[in-house]
User: Fold this.
Amino acid sequence: MKNTRQLIVATVISLLTIAPISCNSDDDSNSDCQDAICTTVLVRIMVSITDQNQDPVALDSFKVVNRENGNDMTIALTPSELAAAQQFGQYPLIEDGSLGVNQERQIQFQGFVNNQEVISSDYTVGTDCCHVGLVDGNLQLTL
Assistant:
C-alpha cells in the first residue's frame, strides 16, 4: 500500500513537472504568446511532505507567500480537498493563473501544526506562454 501511494505521488509530480515545458519552443520572443498552442490541462505544482518514516504529514494549515512583497498566494482548498491533502501529505504550491505570462517569482511554502510553523521551503517558479513551472526548489520535503 505504501509503495503504491509513493508510486502514485511520484507519477503525479513527474507529470506536473514535465507539463510546463514551453508549447512553442522556437519562439524567440518571450513576450509574444499569441501563436502558442497550449494544452487545456490545469497545471498545479504540489509539495510532498513526509516524516522520517516516509509517512504523509498532515498539516493543520499551510501558506504560500511572495517573498518579494509578502503577498499571500495560497491556493484555497475546500474542506474535502484539505482532507485529501492531509491524507496524502500533498499541498498545492502554485497553479496556472497564479502568475502572468512569462513571469518568475520567488515564493515560500510554510506548513503549520497547532499554529506553529513546522516546515518552510523557498522556491522559484515561473510561467511560459502556457503553464506554470518549477524553476528551483525541492518538492519532496521531510519533516
Q: What stands out?
A: Helices lie at 2-18, 79-88.
